[in-house]
Amino acid sequence: MPAHVQPVRVYFGVFAALMAFTALTVFASFVNLGHANTFVALGIAAAKATLVILYFMHVKGNTKLVPVVILSGLFFLLLLFLFLAADYGTRGWLGVPGR
User: Fold this and answer.
1) 18: helix, coil or strand?
2) b/e map 37-61, b = 16+ CB within 10 Å
3) pTM of the prediction?
4) Residue numbers of the domain that contains 72
5) Are residues 51 and 87 in the same domain?
6) Which helix (H) or strand (E) holds 39?
């Protein structure tokens, strides 16, 4: 399997984008957005993770099977979170023992 080689300027561009997202994360931590703080932080983290996966893990430019495997893993993670939220959301009727 031949290695997919990116130009050095692409790596410097991705590095600059990751540093910008890191600065944005630090800036967002000092801003009080209420309950949206978690979603903003998760969104920035997802963008940084996407850049790392695409460029540093060489998913971009690889065979078509690699993105399918990664997307299926993300789909099952989303499914796990969905079932977790459904379970957590239906536990209110149980009551608290000892009261």
Assistant:
1) helix
2) eeeeeeebeeebeebebbbeeebee
3) 0.71
4) 63-91
5) no
6) helix 36-51
* Buried residues in 65-78 as b, exposed as e (16+ CB within 10 A): eeeeeeeeeeeeee
78 and 35 in one domain?
Answer: no
Radius of gyration of the chain (CA): 19
67 and 82 share one domain:
yes
Is 33 a member of any domain? Answer: yes
pLDDT digits (tens, 9 = 90+) for 12-48: 999 999 999 999 999 999 999 998 998 999 999 999 9
Q: Which residue type sits at 80?
A: L
Q: Which two tokens stand for residue 56?
A: 């540093």
